[in-house]
Specification:
By secondary structure, this protein is of the alpha+beta class. It folds into two domains: about 120 residues, 2-Layer Sandwich (Phosphorylase Kinase, domain 1); about 80 residues, Transferase(Phosphotransferase), domain 1 (Orthogonal Bundle). The protein is built from four helices and twelve strands; from the N terminus they run E-E-E-E-E-H-E-E-E-H-H-E-E-E-E-H. The chain has a seven-stranded antiparallel beta sheet, with helices on one face. A three-stranded antiparallel beta sheet has the order 8-10-11. Strand 6 and strand 7 form a beta hairpin. The termini are far apart.
Length: about 210
């Protein structure tokens, strides 16, 4: 069996790969720390959680230990309608990201089940800051705003063309990466409550959400 648990350890800020050694991420201790998924994804700590899933930082040990993000389904009481809805929305998020192939939308890389049976999927790690954090600093000049809005619009148009409505667009779900030449690239994240047209997981309950 590929999945295995190694002894728990205290979580410390992890310096990212590359040249920005001064940048660190605050990680929360979790029961999944040190778990190796599918023989390659080593979980290092919890990044955050929402209404449907918990997000973890991990390393792809088979690909130069690059950073990835793993989202694990939150589950309620077994057999509850609420849990069934969570699972369908979780599956639809994977479906939405599989449909989309756009430079301004986070990519999905893999999927599977945790050792305890909970489903997970692996996403591209976006090194950058949320649009919200940029908005809390100094005022953003108009040319910069125009560039960001143009990219956001392009990503939303691409999603709509594929029958996907994000439904949770907010500054916290827009990541901004700064490239070496100073260019800023946005990435839309968190399609957890998105509407997916003609979804293979659609039911009356899911389609009305």
């Amino acid at each position: 069996m590929d999945d295995k648990k190694v002894p728990d350890r205290d979580t410390k800020p992890v310096a990212p790969l590359g040249t920005q050694a001064d940048l660190v991420l605050p990680l929360k201790e979790s029961t999944y720390n040190g778990v190796l998924l599918k023989g390659r994804y080593l979980i290092e700590g919890e990044l955050g959680r929402g209404g449907i899933g918990v997000v973890y930082l991990a390393r792809d040990t088979q690909l130069l230990k690059r950073r990835v993000v793993i989202k694990v389904l939150l589950q309620g009481e077994e057999g509850s309608v609420h849990t069934e809805w969570f699972k369908k929305k979780f599956d639809q998020e994977i479906e939405a990201l599989v449909r989309l192939d756009h430079p301004s939308i986070v990519g999905v890389l893999d999927a599977g089940d945790m050792p305890d049976g909970k489903p997970f999927f692996v996403m591209q790690y976006v090194e950058g800051a949320t649009l919200r954090s940029l908005m809390t600093g100094e005022p953003i000049d108009f040319p910069r705003v125009a560039s960001l809005v143009r990219q956001i619009g392009g990503a939303l148009s691409a999603a709509h063309d594929k029958g996907i409505i994000h439904r949770d667009l907010k500054p916290e779900n827009i990541m901004v990466q700064t490239m070496r030449d100073g260019e800023e690239i946005i990435k839309l994240i968190d399609f957890g409550i998105a509407t997916v047209k003609d979804s293979q997981y659609a039911t009356e309950t899911a389609m009305n959400c």
